[in-house]
Predict the structure.
Amino acid sequence: MDITLQKMEYLIALWKFRNDKRHIFLSCYQRMTQSMIKSIENGEFEDPEWVIVLLNHFAEYYFRALTLYEAGETHTPLVWKAVHETALKENPGVLQLLATGINAHINYDLVFVLVDLLAKEWSKMSDTQKSIRYKDYIHVNQVIAATIDQVQDEVVEINVPVWGVMDTLMGRLDEKLASLLINRWRSEVWDDALSIISTQSEAEKARLHSGIQQKVLQRTHYILLKNF
């Protein structure tokens, strides 16, 4: 993960220098990744080796989509094209920038990361082994929840100073709401991944993929208030 964190650090510095708003989501993602690494090192997971593979593969999806978009490739995932173009060509708020990135990376990328990792082993695993996979997956929610304050302090408030006052007035409500939303999304992602894994039909897999993409794009539109 050292190389991944170095790539994140380099891009964050570059994008800040260029006043490229994409640094906001990546700064959040960087802190979440650092928290995950600490949790792995602290022995919080049942199968830390699998979680490391998950973490690395998850990052690969982000950087692959970024590379495609920067190269102007037509097969850039539509969900990521929307995120990048929103940050570069529109004037969204900081929270919208964060939410669109999180939406794309969790609700789209994570589904297919799970499919990549679980498809080869799921049918061969015992119920106990499947339970361990799910337990480790769910523990990530706790790591994310514990990092929300840091993201608010070091990313949101730095870019929107008034948010510090709002955060104080809201107490723990905003953190709880953000955590609940991410928990709900990640639960849905697990179900979506298993739906893809459970079918042998390529046509059905393509239909599920298209449905997930449309769902994530629709959420992007809601986040940006484009449907109102």
